[in-house]
Structures are given as C-alpha cells and as structure tokens.
Write a structure and sequence with these properties.
With 351 residues, the chain is an alpha/beta fold. The protein folds into 2 domains: 59 residues, Orthogonal Bundle (DNA polymerase, domain 1); 279 residues, TIM Barrel, CATH 3.20.20.70. 35% of the residues lie in helices and 20% in strands. The structure holds S-adenosyl-L-homocysteine.
C-alpha cells in the first residue's frame, strides 16, 4: 500500500461520499465506486465502465487501490477445498482458504501478517508479528476468492493467520464493510471471529452488539494446561476469559464456540474432558474439537481417533454439544500458517 495515499477500499460509503465532495464530484459517484469495489469486485479503476476517464485519473492519483493477487492456488483432490496464497502490495504474503459445505461456501481469512501470540502448536506465530492487515486487505481475500471461484461466499471465518482482536479497529471496520447492505452484504450471523482470548477486546466486541459468532480458542480446561499451550493465558487468566465469554453471550445472545485442539497425551485424557465439562457447565456454547495439525517445528502429535471420539462422548454425556471438525484439504495444506512459511523458506533457498 502506498503509505501517503488513502486506502479507498477501506472507506465506508459515507466517507467515500465526503471524499467525492472534496474532489468536487457528484455524490452518486461514491455509490457507483462503492458498488464497483464491494459488489462487482473490480480489481481496478479500469474495469469501471461508467466512471469517466478524468475521474479515474484523479482517483489513481489520490487513492491506493488494494487488489490482492494469488501467488499460488492449491485445490484438494479429496474435497475441492482451495488454499490461496496472496501477495500484498508491500510484498508480504497471507493465506486464505475456500471450503465448500452443503450449507454454503465458506472463506477463512487471515487478519495479520504473522502473529505475536505464540501458541505452541501453531505455525503462524513462529516468526512473530509483521503487521496487522488493513480492512481492505481482509476484504480482498474474500473478493479475490469470490472472483476466482465464480461462486457466492456465504460464510466468513476469521481463523487464518493472526489474532483478529490484536488488530481491533481494522477488524471492526472490515466487519462493517463486509456486512454493509450496499456491499457484499454477508449476514452477521454467518461470520465467526476466533480469538485466543484478549479479554478487554472481547468485552469491547460484546459492547458492539453485533450478531457475529465469537469463537474462543481454549485448548486447555485448567489454567495450568492452557498456559502450557498458550503463552497468552499467562496474561489473561482462565476465569477472566470465561467471564468475558459469558458477557459476550449476555450482550449479543450469541452462543459461544469453544475451539479445543486435541493434542495426543497433552489435553485429551478423561481427566481433561471432565475438567472441560466442569468449566463449561451452564454456559450456552458449542465445542469444536480439532485434532491438532502437527507442525515440523514442534513435537506435538494428534490424538488417536479413539481418544477423540471418547472425548466427544464425555462432553455429550454432560450435555455439552460438541463436533469433531472435519479435516478439509488434508492433501494441500499441512497445519495452519504453513503455506506462507513454506513459501518464505523456498525463497530463502531452505526448501
Ligand atoms: N488467533 C485466533 C485465530 C487464528 S487460529 C485464535 O487463536 O483463535 C484459528 C484456530 O486454529 C485457533 O483455535 C488455533 O488455536 C487453531 N490452530 C492453530 N494452529 C493449529 C494446529 N496446528 N492444529 C490445530 N489447531 C490449530
């Protein structure tokens, strides 16, 4: 992104209208531009057939126009899942995933380049945080995928690389643009934001009273177990995190999703399941069990299938709804965040 220029795709329709006024243009131009960007998903001004050339030249001079380009696209031969690696204007790379479900197509996007949360099993955080993504860069992952597949996107999950609540203002603006009735108009109920548990910002998000689903990455049912897998747990104690979840439900009426990555021998025993049942008792929630995706840099292993099913059964016996996440695109991805790293390694000649 050109630093001195305003990022036109991150502006609300209102702001864009003010900009057109500033340029001495008619207000309806803002509406036209907004539609080209957020409904027709134009990759640049040249595609905008009803915008006069003189205005296009002005826009070119005044604003930066984000349009991600796919560096690689891998398609799973098993289930059609596609994994995209995108180049940002500054040369950074982010990855996004397109998944086909019976109930609609879903896109998983990244919210930051890298991550500073340090979860032990996660590949995205190994090199730390580079920067947060702009609202336009989050949107454009979805737009580029919608264009490339030619299919409608109905669900969006912010579960790719990065901690969305560590990029709060940009995330919020992104959510507003994505759900805007003048834009792609994705329903708030079809959006999930996943967090490792940044308590202040969970509460801030609750106060926005959006209808999006909040997913909380739990991965341990006691303070000690959680700390061992997630350094961020030292900063926010488990009770505080759960109380923020409760608050989110109170403010929004939206049921919390808890993500629990099962790591063989680490957090998948009967005692772990019992602790989880105790922790979540009385909470309106759903648990997503994710067999951990082992990454090279760490020696964590997946739980055995038997242990996964037993774990789920224990939860269900305690009336806690749980699903084992289906692993889509097994043949193309490896663990979350690995694609971007692999690309960086190849460039550095490490293979
Ligand atoms: N920072 C956010 C969102 C990104 S990670 C968060 O922590 O929730 C999305 C989910 O994938 C999180 O639950 C994360 O803990 C999990 N995850 C990351 N690496 C994983 C791996 N190798 N195997 C299984 N789950 C993983």
């Amino acid at each position: 992104m050109e630093l001195n220029k305003l990022d036109i795709k991150s502006l609300s329709l209102e702001e864009l209208t003010a900009q057109m006024q500033r340029l001495g243009e008619k207000a309806f131009r803002a509406k036209q531009l907004y539609e080209w960007m957020h409904v027709r998903l134009a990759r640049g001004y040249d595609e905008m057939t009803n915008i006069p050339k003189s205005l296009k030249e002005k826009l070119e001079r005044e604003y930066a126009y984000t349009a991600l380009s796919a560096v690689t696209v891998q398609t799973s031969r098993i289930d059609g899942t596609k994994k995209f690696l995108f180049a940002l204007a500054d040369g950074n790379r982010v990855e996004s995933v397109w998944m086909k479900y019976r109930h609609g197509n879903s896109v998983c996007i990244s919210s930051q380049v890298g991550c500073r949360m340090g979860c032990r099993f996660c590949a995205s955080t190994l090199d730390g945080l580079e920067r947060g993504l702009e609202p336009s860069e989050m949107l454009d992952q979805i737009y580029a995928i919608a264009r490339s597949t030619g299919e409608r996107v109905s669900n969006v999950v912010v579960m790719g690389t990065g901690e969305p609540l560590d990029n709060y203002d940009n995330l919020l603006r992104f959510l507003q643009l994505l759900t805007d009735e003048n834009g792609l108009h994705i329903s708030q109920r079809n959006i999930t934001v996943s967090t490792c548990g940044l308590v202040e910002n969970m509460r801030r998000l609750a106060d926005e009273r959006l209808q999006i689903t909040l997913a909380l990455s739990l991965h341990g049912a006691t303070q000690e177990k959680r700390e061992a897998l997630m350094p961020v747990a030292k900063r926010y104690r488990l009770e505080e995190v759960i109380s923020a979840c409760r608050y989110y439900f109170e403010q929004t009426g939206r049921r919390i999703t808890f993500e629990y990555s099962l790591v063989g021998g680490v957090n998948d025993t009967d005692a772990d399941a019992a602790a989880l049942c105790g922790l979540l008792r009385g909470l309106n929630c759903h648990v997503n069990l994710i067999p951990v995706n082992p990454i090279e840099e760490r020696d964590y292993v997946q739980s055995e299938r038997r242990a996964v099913l037993r774990f789920r059964e224990k939860l269900e016996q305690n009336h806690i709804q749980a699903t084992v996440r289906r692993e889509l695109g097994r043949d193309i991805s490896g663990a979350c965040g690995q694609l971007r790293r692999r690309y960086a390694d190849e460039k550095a000649g490490k293979q």
